[in-house]
Amino acid sequence: MEIIKIYRAGVCIVLLLVSVNCFAERKFVINPKIEMGFQNDSNFWKSEHNEVSVNTYSVKPGIILGFETPRTQVYFDATLQPFWYDDQDSPPAGVRDASDDDYTGFTGLFNANYQLSDRLSLGLSDRAYVTRDPAEADIYSDSVSRDKYTINYLEPNAYYRLTDKFGLRSAYRNTNTYYEEDIEDSSENRGIFDLYYALNRTSTFYLDYQVWARDYDQTSSNYTSNQVTLNYERTLKYFSFLGGAGYQHRSFEDAALDNLDLFTWKLQVKRMDADSTVQTTRSRLLLEVGQSMNDVGSGDEYYTASYVRFEGGYRLTELIEASAKAKYQNSDYDQSPENDDTYLLSGKLGYKPLDYLTLGIEGGYETRDSNFDGIDYKNTFVLFTLAVNYDFGKQQLQE
Predict the structure, then answer these.
(1) What's residue 274's pLDDT?
(2) CA-CA distance, 148 to 377, in Å (whole number)?
(3) Any residues with CB less than 8 A from the CB of 70 and at least 6 apart, and which?
(4) Pairwise CA distance, residues 74 & 20, whole Å
(5) Other C-beta atoms lying within 10 Å of the C-beta of residue 49
(6) Strands in the chain per DSSP E
(7) In this structure, what CATH number is given to the domain that contains residue 315?
(8) DSSP states of 321-359 as a string?
(9) Within 13 A of 151's CA, how many CA atoms are on the CB side?
């Protein structure tokens, strides 16, 4: 299985780096984890007319490995994700049993960076998923499909500090998507080039240029996109701000399809306590507003995605955290008059009686309102989780 090969390759790289740096000061982290979950969806299939309540059960064992020396940082995170589904209503005619979708998913994250010299650093990242979630293939997806697929993102990159003020980053990203059923697969090759200018210690401008080609293996037209944006980033003690805007042009091999042009922009605000993580900060906030275009358009379905995303959390006590999430996206299709509005709102309480144990309860509501008949939906969900995350801590070793 391809995903297992990726996992084994990541482990081998971690072991190789440990061996190479065996005589240097180093830190090594081993963090086993497991999460068990129960979820009920009132409209599992996100259907306008055939609503079926379904329970979802999951068990997600995994491990995090971390390795660090003065010149090398390696992070590896692998999680198996078995899911089981149980109908609470009798499925209408033509609707399959939810249990037919039982499967074992996978998430693999790998990141390595090496400081080759004072000016040059090299990196390699890899993300792999076996999933039924369309959002793992495209963050702007508004699909309700539950087709199982494997997707892998592989990205070597390099950063070169030209002067004290200027820096250049380049990366190549290869993305491959394979569906289990006879559904259209695709691959993408993308070049990323960023020119940075450090205005001062807290403010940076950078010009980003990306060019990518996506190829489909069935009937959808292959395309090439070019995008350039000018961005500004400012980092303060608790807050960081990012703003950018630019232009994207997409051309298709099929001459019957019109080229697409889009003004793309993004504003982002983050808040977190200084010298903290998502797990340890007292309060956190993420707000994103912007406009872009979906990359995965099987069936030549592309749209302008205008979105607002919010996530926030506050630790009420040392043991209890409250958090909320809200999302809105308008999908304005280019090749048809379809126009969809999707909304999600949820709230969560987390209780941490032990350093390594977290109990969570989350409830939420999601809906889509479309000008096309038959694709609206409303879904209410509730989720219970029990997570064990045992951090052995950073162990500093020195010969």
Answers:
(1) 84
(2) 21
(3) 24, 25, 115
(4) 13
(5) 8
(6) 26-41, 54-68, 72-87, 103-115, 120-131, 149-161, 166-179, 186-198, 203-216, 223-235, 239-252, 260-272, 283-293, 303-315, 320-333, 339-354, 357-370, 377-389, 395-397
(7) 2.40.160
(8) EEEEEEEEEEEEESSSS-EEEEEEEEEEEEEEEETTEEE
(9) 22
Q: Could you give the residue ranges of the DSSP H alpha helices within the chain?
A: 2-20
320 pairs with which residues across the strands?
351
Q: What angle do CA 100, 104, 110 make, to 5 degrees?
A: 150
Q: Among all chains, which residue has been given the structure tokens 């984890």?
A: 33
**Range of 358's domain?**
2-397
For the chain, first and last CA: distance in Å? 39
Query: What are residue 380's DSSP bridge partners?
Result: 365
CB neighbour class for 330 (10 Å; exposed up to 12, middle 13-18, buried from 19):
middle
Q: Which residues of the chain have pLDDT under 50?
A: 23, 395-399
The model's pTM is 0.92
CA atoms within 13 A on the CB side of 290: 22
Number of domains present in the structure of the chain: 1
* pLDDT, position 397: 40
Place of tokens 């091999």: 253
- Backbone angles phi and psi of 236, in degrees to 5: -115, -170
Longest dimension (CA), the chain: 69
260-265: long-range pairs with CB below 8 Å, 24+: 260/293, 260/302, 260/334, 262/291, 262/292, 262/293, 262/304, 263/291, 264/227, 264/229, 264/290, 264/291, 264/292, 264/293, 265/229, 265/290, 265/291
Sole residue written with tokens 């029990």: 386
8 Å CB contact between 90 and 67: no
**What is the C-alpha to C-alpha distance for residues 285 and 241, in angstroms, rounded to an integer?**
12
d(CA 335, CA 228): 24
- 290 residue type, one letter: G
- Name the token pair of 326: 């809200």
> Residue 6 half-sphere exposure, CB side, CA atoms within 13 Å?
25
How far apart are the C-alpha atoms of 239 and 7, rounded to whole Å? 35
Residue owning tokens 């998913």: 105
The angle subtended at Cα 148 by Cα 143 and Cα 149, nearest 5°, is 95
